[in-house]
Amino acid sequence: MSSFSPMDCLFTSAGLPLFLLDIVLDVLAAVDFYQEGAYLCLGVLLVLLIGSSVLAQLYSWLWYKYDKFEMHTNIEKKAKTRLGALHVFQLGIYVRHAAVLESSPSLSTCCRGSCGDPGDGEYGAFLNHDLSMLRLFETFSESAPQIVLMLSIIMQKGKPDPITVLKMFGSLSAVAFCVTTYHRCLRSFLPDKENQKLVSSVVYFLWNLLLLSSRIVALALFASVEPCFIFTHFFCSWLLLFFFAWRSNTDFMETPAGEWLYRATVGLIWYFDNAVEGKTRYQTVAYHAYMLLDVSALCGVWYWRMSSDPPHDELSCLQAAIIVGAVVAVYVLGLVCRIIYYRFFHPKMYKQADEVDFGPGAPVQNGGVAFRSLQRGQSQQAPCNKRMKKLAENFYSSSSDGVVA
Question: Positive or negative, the Cα torsion across 318, 319, 321, 325?
Fold first, then answer.
């Protein structure tokens, strides 16, 4: 396989420090809520932090179990007998971070242009694929909801608080980092991965950022005037999105229970963004139509409350209307950027509808598609991350009937 590019090495090396920085910001935000006596906000924050950590540790443990606990790094081998306890105490994901750093080429080596040597960092790439998915789950179960919480607090106070603003920008950076690395991991399964241009990742990041920003601001506006109903809105929306995830017949996990957990997680991610996309363009169009309608409805409720309730007379009706129009316009602009990405930067791949499992080995050609397997030679195959490979096939492939991922 082609090993880490310099950009991939940079993202891998920066992953753990950013992860630790996010924990520090979480602690600062929790302490700030406690000192202010905002116990409800503190409780919501703790639920998000604990729930997100448990979710990530559960997936990490299941994936180790699916891989039959095969360990290829010294760190993993030393932690193997205590792997269950480490996950119970919410430390399993740190083992994955350390294993990726151990098995990956150093950043200085990559910058010298030697990280493309055969066999260099292959298992690190395998682990990094899982880690990128865990970051995605953790981002949309912790960081995205926290941004909504912080923004709604700022809107209710009417003035920015340094800690909440710092946490908001830290969470936004985590989301941006997550969607970019997830996209690059999917691209690593294409045969022309080494020719991937930075502009492709930039455009992909841009349309996700615009759509996500509009969605989060709309949710924060609604939560600032209807703090109780935001939970009802989330639960009802999640049920609907979970139903569509089930109807999509996902095939990501290796056990039925694990697959139901994955579908529930996809419903959570879809509440904020279409980071894990549906299998057909019709599903994607239906999703964005629903999201645009929901964003407009959330902003409409906020405008109604701001224009009708006396306590919300800080803004004029014109100013409130401008904010509502801007939020909706940002979502539409994100859709335009998304169309530009698929028109000019998305690889045109096709595959037969009855072939979905390519397996490890040489690149498989089928009707013009080639998904690169992770291999070192005919005598020894490098590990192939079948989970991420399935997602890459769905994202980059289309069947003969015109279906696209």
Answer: positive
Nearest to 219 by CA among 201, 232, 202, 206: 232
CA atoms within 13 A on the CB side of 380: 6
Question: How far apart are the C-alpha atoms of 19 and 127, rounded to whole Å?
Answer: 16
Q: What is the pTM for the complete model shown?
A: 0.83
Most confident range (mean pLDDT) of 62-66, 173-177, 190-194 is 62-66
Per-residue confidence band for 175, with pLDDT thresholds at 50, 70 and 90: confident
Nearest to 49 by CA among 174, 142, 188: 142
Distance CA 400, CA 142 (A): 39
Instruction: Measure the CA–CA gap between 34 and 41, rounded to whole angstroms.
Output: 9
Whether residue 4 contacts residue 104, with contact meaning beta carbons closer than 8 Å, is answered with yes
3-state SS, one letter per residue, for 325-358: HHHHHHHHHHHHHHHHHHHHCCCCCCCCCCCCCC
SS3 401: coil
Higher pLDDT, 110 or 229: 229
